[in-house]
Design a protein that fits this description.
Elements: H1 7-18, H2 23-30, H3 34-48, H4 55-75
Helix pairs in contact: 1-2, 1-3, 1-4, 2-3
């Protein structure tokens, strides 16, 4: 695992978005206390310096998670071959 990476926060954020921003449904899905979910979402807000109650922030986070997933999947592929320019 890379230093500074916090998978609990990423999983929590994904689940929170999947559960349509419901604290209770997210807590149930993650087998966690509702207050733990609230803490984690606030921690995300603190780390990124944006207000997670704003719809635009949630949209940015959703896109960031999609990019993160694409990079994780792409990271498992062999690197492209570098060809010399003619």
């Amino acid at each position: 695992m890379r230093p500074g990476r916090q998978p609990d926060l990423i999983v929590t954020l994904w689940t929170y978005l999947d559960m349509r921003r419901s604290w209770q449904k997210t807590a149930t899905a993650l087998f966690a206390h509702r207050q733990t979910i609230i803490y984690r979402i606030r921690k995300i807000s603190e780390l990124i310096g944006l207000d997670v109650t704003e719809t635009s922030t949630m949209a940015q986070l959703w896109f960031a998670l999609k990019i993160h997933d694409a990079m994780e999947i792409g990271g498992n592929c062999a690197p492209l071959e570098v060809r010399p320019q003619a």
